[in-house]
Amino acid sequence: MKKRDKLGLIHKYYPNAVTSIDGINTLIDFVEENLDLEPAQIMFADSICSDDVNSIQYPARAQEFLGPFKLGGLDGFPFTGLTGMAAFASHVPDDGAVFVYYGPHIGVSAEGVLGEIHRHGQQITSSCCGAAKGALNKLKNNAITEGDVKDIDYQMNTLEQILFRQKDRILKSDIPLYEATEVIYEAIDERIQELVAQTKYNCKYIILLGTIHINSDSDIGSFTAVKRFDVIDIALGHRQNYLAQRYFA
User: Fold this and answer.
1) What is the pTM of this model?
2) Residue 151 lies in a domain
3) Each residue of 64-74: pLDDT tens digit?
């Protein structure tokens, strides 16, 4: 399948999505041209789902950065919290920057089915994100109790609570899984902003790339639909929103 056909498949749901490879290339070009930094000066963290498909479909060029430090658990929520963010921040070169790529993921199969992909070596599709779909099914069946978070399944229960708080919005939407993913993105983005605000960084910049991360079949690859692209100049205390400049479109 040609690149334009792959993008056509994804653009049915996410019109601004680019391939993950193009996304990383764009980010590297940006830091070199706009921040005058090399990838080896960038400490990279991701807060994306621990699903193995995200490791399998990880762009090779991301290895030019330092890291990645893993902040995320099920569906990308930054479960490592303040301790994880502080540890990550302490690893960055003094004259460099931190880069955080974050957001939930969702599948789009070759047949155009949202929430499913064909994984390597399998004949039938499987869920992506399985945790989000599981939480959504419980929401539909009124099987989530407010405040019910148990240690033995803490991450899944947290996702359930995130959806429960937006129950009407999700269930009244045309595509509940799409809307649930948007709700989870908003919760992740809010938490990332909280973690950044409460963490000390001994470097020049903080780069925040908030996205919906999109997986497809093993022969199609992954994509990213960027929802936030901010750069914080730590010395000046200034935050610049670069999303409107269409770097990832």
Assistant:
1) 0.96
2) no
3) 999 999 999 99
